[in-house]
Amino acid sequence: MPERMWNKMVDKTQRSKSMPFLPRPINLDGSYVGDVGFDPFYLSSIDKNFAGFIQPPSWEETKGLPTLYWMRESELKHGRIAMLAFAGWLATDFGVRFPGAGAPYTSVPNAFSAHDIMVENGSMWVMLSLAGMIEICSGAVLVEVSKGLSDREAGEYGFDPLGFNKNNSDDMKLKELQNGRAAMMAFGGLATQTALGGTEFPYLVPYPNVAEFTW
């Protein structure tokens, strides 16, 4: 009988730090900053070379990108975008606009409506093109890593104009990671609350007869 994949995905001798009722995912051994063993779906245990997502394997043989490297790269990227998005959403709803922006930007009533308005006037194509260029550039960096030409850490682009982490400390890396995780949750909640009707800060949904609710 072939060995169960489960036996390769977990370390049965240890428990997850964040979910002690589950065995520790095999790859979450604490080697990455912010690793607390939280992976209830065991996605980090998938044995796959993720370099194929950015460059077809048929082009050339590469060292590859391990699962945990790819997922940390994705987590940091989504966390950074979420932090910017959350701050941008609040700024828009508080009436902040770029000086001299003019119409239609000055006529956007709130952040929730901004997407459809930008699509209608064509501005979204500019943002989409810019995002595409950034993705191509970041993909090129990952190709170098997959070829073994770079020992770059996941998510590291050397972008620190204010020198917050000039000493490359794990403490600052952890702060960025934790704030990114919080921002992803916060932005999801913010967008959901606004879609349900809470369009103004603090984005409380105006349920009818809320006084009648009992807890």
Any overview of this molecule?
The chain has helices spanning 5-9, 67-93, 111-121, 123-147, 170-195, and strands spanning 10-15, 23-25. It starts with a helix and ends in a 20-residue tail after the last helix. The protein has a two-stranded antiparallel sheet with strand order 1-2. With 215 residues, the chain is mainly alpha-helical. The mean pLDDT is 86. It has five helices and two strands, in the order H-E-E-H-H-H-H.
Spell out the key features of this protein.
215 residues, mainly alpha, 2 strands, globular
Could you estimate the helical fraction of the residues in percent?
40-55%
Rg (CA only): 22 Å
Q: Could you tell me how far the N terminus lies from the C terminus, measured between alpha carbons in angstroms?
A: 53 Å
Molecular shape: globular
Lateral arrangement of strands in the main beta sheet: 1-2
Q: What structural class results from the helix and strand content?
A: mainly alpha
Low-confidence stretches: none
* Order of helical and strand elements: HEEHHHH
Biggest sheet character: 2 strands, antiparallel
Number of strand elements: 2
Q: Helical region count?
A: 5
Proportion of strand residues: under 5%
